[in-house]
Amino acid sequence: MTLRRLLSALDFLHTEAGIIHAGTQPRLDVACLEDNSMLADFAKAEVEEPNPRKKVNESRIMYKSWRFRRPARGKIYGLPALCDFGEARIGKTQQSGPFVQPHIYRAPEIIFEMPWGSAVDIWNLAGLIWDLFEGGHLFGDIFDAKGGYDPFKHLALMVALIGLTLSEFVKRSQTAEQYFDPSGKRPALAKVLLAWL
Q1: Burial zone of 6 (CB within 10 Å; 0-12 exposed, 13-18 middle, 19+ buried)
Q2: Residue 29 pLDDT greater than 60, yes or no
Q3: Rounded to whole angstroms, how far apart are CA atoms 56 and 77?
Q4: Sign of the CA dihedral 21, 22, 28, 31?
């Protein structure tokens, strides 16, 4: 039921609304509430002690996460719903840098800084499904020794596991030459893989 609801939500966003979510992850796909008194408690707490916030720019404010109390006796949280549209983009095709999607679920198009569309949501959801069923990330070791995201390691793991069709990416991406030669061979990634193994 959870997967069906998330796929239905993404289908609506992609086909009807023309929106790419670009940020699906377990902590953001939260449950609907059957116990509405939880919202009243939240509103009261917000009035009494406002949640910390940071003004990012004139049109965006970030709020610190707040934990809801447990539902009242006999009630449940409800079914999951797709939420948090902070990374969402309007339109069928986007062109942006590599700072979209959570690192662990980042699609190849995002890493290569190529034009991208709703397919990145499906890639993202597939990674999320793996995590939920397997209890760990499909591409888990994508960080360097200092804890920073390492796109070389991420791509090396993708190539090693699923063998991406690379020549297409090399032709369409302006940054692919960092990872591959023009024929799609991957000398840079081979070095990463050898060092990692």
Answers
A1: buried
A2: no
A3: 31
A4: positive
Active-site annotation holds for 35:
yes
Query: Tokens 């069906």 appear where?
Result: 4
Model confidence pLDDT, tens digit, residues 44-97: 888 888 878 888 888 788 777 777 777 777 776 667 778 888 888 999 988 866
* Residue reference for tokens 């709703």: 118
Q: pLDDT tens-digit profile of 133-142?
A: 888 888 888 8
Which residue out of 35, 41, 121, 181 is catalytically annotated? 35
CA-CA distance, 22 to 106, in Å (whole number)?
9
Q: DSSP state, 33?
A: -
The tokens 């193994």 sit on which residue? 197
Strand ranges (DSSP E) for 64-179? Answer: 89-90
E strands, 7-133, in order? 19-20, 53-57, 60-63, 89-90
